[in-house]
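Narrative progress, year one. The postdoctoral researcher (J.K.) led the effort to move from monomer predictions toward full complexes, under supervision of the PI. The following entry was the first complex the group processed end to end, covering 350 residues in total.
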Amino acid sequence: MTILVTGGAGYIGSHTCVELLQSGYEIIVLDNFSNSKPKSLKRVSEITGKSFKTYQIDLVNRNKLEDVFSQNKITAVIHFAGLKAVGESVQIPLEYYHNNLTGTINLCEMMRKYEVKKLVFSSSATVYGSTGDLPIAENSRLGATNPYGRTKLMIEEILRDLYESDHNWSIALLRYFNPIGAHSSGLIGEDPKGIPNNLMPFISQVAVGKLECLNIYGNDYSTKDGTGIRDYIHVVDLAIGHIRALENLENNNGIEAFNLGTGTGYSVLDLVNAFEKATGESIPYVMKERRPGDAAVCFADPTKAMEQLGFKATRSIEMMCEDTWRWQKTNPNGYTGNLELNRKDQATVL
Ligand code: NAD
Ligand code: UDP
């Protein structure tokens, strides 16, 4: 079985490529490298000892996209490719709608044309907007609060319409909570551009000395220590969730949304303490005003994924911190670092 992985060079995509290859799938990666580096794919080859085709293509470019489908026999698609920065999406909404919506529509058109009707889509817990439900189940009220979130919500709706038009489609909408951590090899991990917006990459860059001090946004929420609570999930668990979703698509037509989270919430201070304990590094921080638009508490009800996909996240918060630190410490500048050894390039970059 050959799986096309769009956005496969990115943070979650690269970890999922490893799990796919180790589970015996063939993969083809498509990425425009707008937010990633080909080096992540070389590292995927290195971890797995397997090679695979890579296309440097923008999903918005229909003609080039068709080459991928006409040149390969694809069984299913895992669709990670998209822009994902909430703040940036407020600044340049048209670019977000164009990239994420047009890219997805082009992909689905090509899938329809080449009779590839199995799709796993990267959605997000952001589609729950400001639902008051806790834990958050898949049938909670939906409503995004920024352009990025609206692209996810709109794509979910487009995919529902697509399924209504043709019941031969099998589609999984995976709503991720907060992926953190890295592969245990330390070879692949999160490599954000510029100053990170998300908590874990910020913490690890403070630990490695690239940033001075963590700003904690809000200590007056009605939580146990006043800081915001999130459901952090190890990126390798998340990657394995995609394999379970793919297996489920093999036997079931339909369109279903699944939360991928642990069901446990940790506060900002919990994560700082866990990181300090796991790594022996100290993380200086200062308390700041709340970040506009942030929810106080957000964690998943993971029951549906457990019951229908047989998926349960097993990696602990300690492991998430240890693995992040291994990656950060050995790659202080991410994939652009000069610590790169002379490695054999096993991926075919077309
Ligand atoms: P990422 O930016 O690391 O990976 C996305 C990849 O898609 C990048 O390699 C980028 O170069 C590529 N890409 C973007 N637009 C493209 C286009 N038009 N054509 C081809 N390639 C394109 O992000 P990630 O953290 O790995 O996230 C993967 C997916 O999961 C995204 O859709 C994101 O919105 C979603 N998601 C991420 C998180 C998170 O916290 N990381 C949470 C919820 C949902
Ligand atoms: N956060 C913080 N400092 C930072 C980044 C994030 O205090 O530099 C807090 C944020 O307010 C939230 C939690 O950490 O309570 C997780 O934030 P992140 O951006 O990682 O995830 P999201 O809010 O998108 O779920």
